[in-house]
Amino acid sequence: MLCDACPLECRADRALGPGTCGAGDRFEVSTIQLHHWEEPPVSGTRGSGTVFFSHCNLSCRFCQNYTISQLGTGRPMSAAELEAAILDLVAAGAHNVNLVTPTQYT
């Protein structure tokens, strides 16, 4: 399958190697945690269940998550592992689930 998940439409075969954004054919996740530092309407009183995906299809000059988005800090996860981790956040009382930079995995 040739990648056209984002506006870059790099057409990479991510089963053979990463696309322009750096993402391969598996989810890569830097951090999964209850995040209490978002605005209260987002995080509520229990925290936002935040999933920081590695890589990004943008190259923002002042990106606050540069090591995650551009250097690919993180670990590969299967869909089943990601689902289990998200369900753990919900079980821990997450106010919501916040997927950070997921475009390259849609």
TrEMBL record:
Recorded superkingdom: Bacteria
Family annotation (InterPro entries): Aldolase_TIM, MJ0674-like, rSAM, rSAM_sf
Keywords for the protein's UniProt record, in alphabetical order: Iron, Iron-sulfur, Metal-binding, S-adenosyl-L-methionine
Gene Ontology molecular functions: catalytic activity; iron-sulfur cluster binding; metal ion binding
Any Pfam family the entry gives: Fer4_12
PANTHER family reported in the protein's UniProt record: FORMATE LYASE ACTIVATING ENZYME, PUTATIVE (AFU_ORTHOLOGUE AFUA_2G15630)-RELATED (PTHR43075:SF1)
Protein's name according to its UniProt entry: 4Fe-4S cluster-binding domain-containing protein
Naturally occurring in which organism (per UniProt): candidate division WOR-3 bacterium
Record lineage: Bacteria, Bacteria division WOR-3
